[in-house]
Each structure stands twice: as C-alpha cells, then as structure tokens.
Amino acid sequence: MSLFDDHVSPSPQEACDYMRDKYGFDIRALRKERGLDFYKTIALINYIRTKTSSLTCFGCDKTVSALEDLPIHMRENGCFTSIPKDDHAMWKSPQFLFPAYDNDPLLTSFESMSSDEDDDGPDPRVVVPPLEKPIRDLELLMLQEQQQQQSSTISPTPK
Ligand SMILES: [Zn+2]
C-alpha cells in the first residue's frame, strides 16, 4: 500500500505513518499545507501510484531500473517533497480520479480521516463524498431514463 515501495501496512493510517516515518512523505500534512481537498488527494495518490508502477519518480520524472532504487533516488534528490505545482496538468486530468489500483485502501481512508480535521477549522468547501457516489448517481439517472424510454414506447401514457 506504500506509494514508494512494496511495503504493505495493516491499515491505511499505518501506511501513512510508514511513509511519513520512512520517507518524510506526510500526506496528511501535505493536505493541510497545500489545501488539498478530497479529489485532489485522490488525484495525487493515483498520480504517484501511476508513476511508481512505471518506476518513475513523481518529483522529477526520472526512471529507475528497479523499484527498490526509487526511494533511494527520491531521498537523495529530495523528490519526496516535490509535489506537483498547483498549475500542473495532473490536477485537472480526470485520469487520476480513477484508482490506479482497484479498491486502493489508501483512497477510501481519507473519508474517515476528514472527520479528524474538524477540530482545526474545516474548510467548508471540503465535503467528502464517497468516491463512487457521483458514478452511482449517474448510473441511477441513466437507468431511470432508460426505464422512462422503455415505458413510453411500450405503453404510451394517453393524454
Ligand atoms: Zn526524482
């Protein structure tokens, strides 16, 4: 679950702790510093996962020959803190709103984490919807339209 090696933590929270302690990559602190909302956090995680899975450093786009070389490179070059700038295209790319890994536990963890942040003045814009809800709503809408179309062709309501 770690973003930078194949370390698997028992929970997303521990995965965050692991990355913070081992690499100095503190996603929770980053969210506050950069004002990342739910979707931006998702985009960032997926962006890093995509890069890591192709053995590429998300900070400077350098490719390494083996996964274990990646954190070494990133530590030596300070790439762990090279979060994409606000105008970077990845923030707007819908590609990164979809999980790089199916059911990535790290993505869903930020729903529960957001409640911890309520104490220190939550940003009212940061509403944390379940990731799949917009998709579910859309599916429901399409289903309803389909049913309406079907019912109108099969038994048109007389006026
Ligand atoms: Zn790098």
The value of Rg in angstroms is 20 Å
How does the helix and strand content classify structurally?
mainly alpha
Q: Give the count of structural domains.
A: 2
Distance between the termini: 59 Å
Overall shape: it is elongated
How much of the residues is beta strand, in percent? under 5%
Question: How helical, in percent, are the residues?
Answer: 40-55%
List how many beta strands DSSP finds: 0
Listed once per kind, the bound small molecules are: zinc ion
Helix and strand succession?
HHHHHH
* Unreliable parts: 115-122
> Main beta sheet: strand number and arrangement?
none
Features:
159 residues, mainly alpha, 2 domains, 6 helices, 48% helix, binds zinc ion
Descriptive overview:
The protein has 159 residues and is mainly α. The chain has 2 domains: 12-128, no CATH class; 130-159. 48% of the residues lie in helices and 0% in strands. It has 6 helices and no strands. It is elongated, with a radius of gyration of 20 Å. Zinc ion is lined by residues 57, 59-60, 62, 73-74, 77, 79.
Q: Could you give a short description of this structure?
A:
Helices cover 48% and strands 0% of the residues. By secondary structure, it is mainly α.
Secondary structure elements and their pairing?
Elements (H helix, E strand, L loop, with lengths): L11 H12 L3 H8 L3 H16 L15 H9 L27 H9 L19 H22 L5
Helix pairs in contact: 1-5, 3-5
The structure holds zinc ion.
